[in-house]
């Protein structure tokens, strides 16, 4: 397959694969005040970032939507995440309104271990949420917290995925790594999960969880790109990456707009793995389409 070396080549890339477009499971849209604060944190290379991280697509919401549509991104998330109690419910109200006015958006919600979390997660589920973002690194909380046990059970019963940043990249805390979230999966083995960034840098541990739990998926976000914020993917896992991809459990993610390179570079870096057109079709479309009922 031809590698898309620039954003202008993305549409030609997916058309050559015979796809109707691409699906990106790891995209951030937030209230502008929060998005600006996140960009400011990246500008400062804050302690959770660990390196210089210039934001390439620092555009208005309307311009970012137009950009994704122009690339042919047919569905995407609006990942938000709280860093303290008292934020999640209002974020969920905003993302529900965003999805109502942006038809391509997979309605997204989030949560934090706090009193009332099960109630507002139930409301989000009843309101049509299709994926929950859980950021253990930024949130700095234990996914095994007693307040969350009912929440994980609700998501497992509903079959609604949790997209979890559980890996320790770019900076670890006491609740990242495959151990804490692995304990959640052991208690709720039917939970549908998407592990962000392929679990970087603990690739082996998170791939082992995918081997153990058939509803664990992983997204490609920023892995294999030239940006060195995350660890290098081990060659020994490439056969497993191929197998999981063909099984529909490796999903395209990009971290748009919070990336320091062209959007196309994530696709270019995946194509350079030379795992085959069928693998790329599954990662970019068939896998996420099946997961979210878009096929």
TrEMBL record:
One of its GO terms (molecular function) is hydrolase activity. The keyword Hydrolase applies. Residues 23-294 form the Amidohydrolase-related domain. Keywords: Hydrolase, Lyase. GO terms for cellular component: cytoplasm. One of its GO terms (biological process) is secondary metabolic process. SUPFAM superfamilies: Metallo-dependent hydrolases. Signal peptide: none annotated. This is Amidohydrolase. It comes from Actinomadura darangshiensis. The lineage of its organism: Bacteria, Bacillati, Actinomycetota, Actinomycetes, Streptosporangiales.
């Amino acid at each position: 397959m031809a590698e898309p070396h620039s954003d202008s080549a993305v549409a030609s890339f997916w058309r050559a694969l015979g796809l109707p477009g691409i699906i990106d499971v790891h995209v951030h849209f937030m209230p502008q005040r929060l998005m600006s604060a996140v960009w400011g944190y990246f500008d400062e290379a804050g302690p959770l970032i660990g390196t210089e991280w210039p934001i390439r697509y620092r555009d208005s919401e309307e311009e970012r939507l137009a950009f994704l549509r122009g690339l042919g991104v047919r569905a995407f998330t609006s990942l938000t995440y709280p860093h303290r109690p008292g934020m999640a419910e209002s974020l969920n109200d905003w993302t529900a309104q965003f999805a109502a006015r942006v038809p391509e958006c997979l309605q997204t919600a989030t949560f934090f271990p706090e009193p009332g979390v099960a109630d507002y997660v139930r409301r989000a589920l009843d309101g049509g949420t299709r994926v929950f973002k859980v950021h253990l690194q930024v949130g700095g909380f234990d996914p095994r917290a007693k307040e969350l046990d009912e929440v994980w059970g609700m998501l497992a019963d509903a079959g609604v995925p949790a997209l979890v940043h559980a890996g320790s990249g770019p900076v670890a805390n006491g609740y990242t790594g495959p151990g804490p979230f692995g304990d959640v999966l052991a208690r709720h083995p039917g939970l549908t999960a998407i592990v962000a960034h392929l679990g970087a840098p603990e690739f082996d541990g998170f791939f082992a969880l995918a081997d153990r739990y058939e509803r664990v998926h992983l997204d490609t976000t920023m892995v294999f790109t030239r940006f060195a914020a995350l660890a290098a993917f081990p060659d020994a896992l490439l056969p497993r990456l191929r197998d999981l991809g063909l099984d529909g459990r490796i999903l395209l993610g990009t971290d748009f707009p919070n990336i320091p390179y062209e959007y196309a570079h994530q696709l270019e870096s995946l194509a350079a793995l030379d795992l085959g057109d069928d693998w790329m079709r599954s990662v970019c479309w068939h896998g996420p389409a099946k997961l979210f009922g878009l096929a």
